Amino acid sequence: MTLDELFQIARQAAAAAYAPYSRFRVGAALLGADGAVYTGCNVENRSFGLTICAERSAVVQGVSRGCRSFTALAISTPDSPVPVGPCGACRQVLSEFMDPRCLVRFGGAGPERVDAAIGELYPYDSLHELAGA
Ligand code: THU
């Protein structure tokens, strides 16, 4: 599974987004250490703070299916012309289940793509000694 292929899956996952408030669809595709791909989309709520991001919904899908380790992530934001990286909350949740060297690719509707390691997106993890309990 290449990052290009994973990004295509993330792009398709964005089609399921429930985003009537922001009109900003996000799709995520997580490659499990088991070889399976787990997808997610953002699911908004009229109580805005209850919104779940695409990245965390993909993590929840993977863990719910018994996978607790992921090796790559792609994020598609088709309603943005430029790449949009994961939010701070998602960076911390992703770091729970991904090695810091694992790559995250993100891109919008345009051709630009960003590849960054989780350790770059979430450096100086203040709780690293508690991880994996
Ligand atoms: N969103 C995500 O799904 N992932 C991100 O990393 C950034 C934001 C969603 C939340 C909300 O539904 C919409 O994008 C606008 O913020």
Structure explained in plain terms:
The protein is 27% helix and 26% strand. The chain has 133 residues and is of the alpha+beta class. The protein is globular and about 40 Å long. The chain starts with a helix and ends in a 12-residue tail after the last helix. Tetrahydrodeoxyuridine binds next to helix 2.
Question: What's the CATH C level?
Answer: Alpha Beta
- Average pLDDT, rounded to a whole number, is 96
> Helix proportion of residues, in percent?
25-40%
What general form does the structure show?
globular
Question: Could you please say which CATH topology applies here?
Answer: Cytidine Deaminase, domain 2
Strand order of the largest sheet: 2-1-3-4-5
Please describe the biggest sheet, giving its number of strands, its sense, and whether it closes into a barrel: 5 strands, mixed
Using only CA atoms, what is the Rg? 14 Å
Write the layout of secondary structure elements.
Elements: H1 3-13, E1 27-32, E2 37-41, H2 54-64, E3 70-77, H3 88-97, E4 98-108, E5 113-117, H4 118-121
Parallel strand pairs: 3-4
Antiparallel strand pairs: 1-2, 1-3, 4-5
The chain binds tetrahydrodeoxyuridine.
